[in-house]
Amino acid sequence: MSRPYRKTVHRRCVTCGAEPPKGFATLCRCGSMIDVEYDLGSVRLHESDNPYIRYFDLLPLESSEHLLPAQHGVTPTRHAERLGRKLGLPRLYLKDETVLPTRTTKDRMAAVVLSCFREYGVREFSAASTGNSSTALGQLVRFYPQCRLHLFCAEDFLDRLQVDEDEQITIWAMRGASFVEASQAAATFAQRTGIVSEGGFFNLARREGLKLAFLEAAEAVPGAIDWYVQAVSSAMGVYGVYKGANELLSLGRIAKIPRLLCVQQDTCCPMAKAFQAGSDTIRPQDIFPRPTGIAQAILRGDPSRVYPYVRRIVKENGGTIVAVDQARIVAARQMVRQLEGIDICYTSATAVAGLIAQVEQELVPRQDTVLVTLTGADRPPKPPRTVHWLERTSRGWQPPEMSQENQCRQWERAK
């Protein structure tokens, strides 16, 4: 693709089918999620080692001129022969996302989100995460110098946020907050200031970026993939993978859609609790108001808004959502390191632990071809040096009592 390449994309509400206006949108006027469709009859895979160019026809951009510079190529899809021998899975494959610049699959999300923002003309936005998404957005936004980013971070996740000092980025750290509260604060801030709220799961560019790992793996794994395994919090990556698999099936590039195995840790497993109970919604008893656990990247205690969409595709697909305990997660991490030489985080280990449990219960046949995405590895703790603190008050989240005059001025200007 030596010159700018253009195509048409169609965004539609998954419930009413309406097309949103041009520009950035996360939800339809009816309140439902917006997704993107491509003219599959015109789709081709371009000859390139750059995944954003190779799979451009399956990304939600109209023009390749808006793509940000890629900071990585295709990640390894490894036939895990030693681990597979240990588990009795001769056709076990690991998609190793730990080699990405921030050591997390969220680099893919950030690249597509920021490229879409560039195409839409978004110049300022707010976002929140448990560390990986915000780190990826913060590190990649420098390639879009016209853009400003406001990151909201719960105090417990601050050491997972690794963003260099940059005038493009403002970090709002929230004392004693949960991830859900940080997300709500980011959305409220955007609404109050008239900027864009990045949207998380409901930002279709996130889901479309995260499906790239599967698109690559589908070309690398010989034969059909029977199971796709990933640890989840909102499961936006799994949702993207399922959509990408359906697109590849329609293009005749794969023979079947893999069944989805979504895994959570049992100390924060709202989706697994609801799914195993047969509920089509997250019930009050499924919510973890103050979630804890060693797999920090998936500590989302209340995914009520996204769960119905995820449950639908998992049920439709014949897959499942399960939870595993800490001992299994720790053992799985050690096993992957010892047998495959990959140093993964506890979130990635949660996926492996879930697979092991399903194999032991004979719910995943040992002769099946299984693909596990190792979504990341630990980064050395390095909290940002400059943050603006917010504290819980009767008036909502506010800076400490004028002790930091500059940040108070910033906050007041935002009101």
First-residue to last-residue Cα separation: 45 Å
Q: Which regions contain 5 or more consecutive residues with pLDDT less than 50?
A: none
| Overall CATH class of the largest domain | Alpha Beta
Determine the fraction of residues in helical runs and give it as a percent range.
25-40%
Question: What is the overall number of helices?
Answer: 13
Name the descriptors.
14 strands, globular, Rossmann fold, alpha/beta, about 35% helix, single chain, about 425 residues
How would you describe what is shown here?
This protein is of the alpha/beta class and 415 residues long. It has 2 domains: 9-62 and 105-204 and 385-414, 3-Layer(aba) Sandwich (Rossmann fold); 77-100 and 211-374, Rossmann fold (3-Layer(aba) Sandwich), CATH 3.40.50. Helices cover 33% and strands 17% of the residues. The protein contains 13 helices and 14 strands. It has helices at 51-54, 81-87, 106-120, 132-140, 179-193, 204-210, 212-220, 236-250, 270-276, 307-317, 326-340, 346-360, 405-414, and strands at residues 9-13, 34-38, 77-79, 92-96, 124-128, 148-154, 169-174, 196-197, 227-231, 259-265, 320-324, 370-374, 388-393, 396-398. It has a 6-stranded mixed beta sheet, sandwiched between helices. Helix 8 links the parallel strand 9 and strand 10. The longest helix is centred in the first third of the chain and has 15 residues, at 106-120. The radius of gyration is 21 Å and the shape is globular. The chain starts with 8 loop residues before the first strand and ends with a helix.
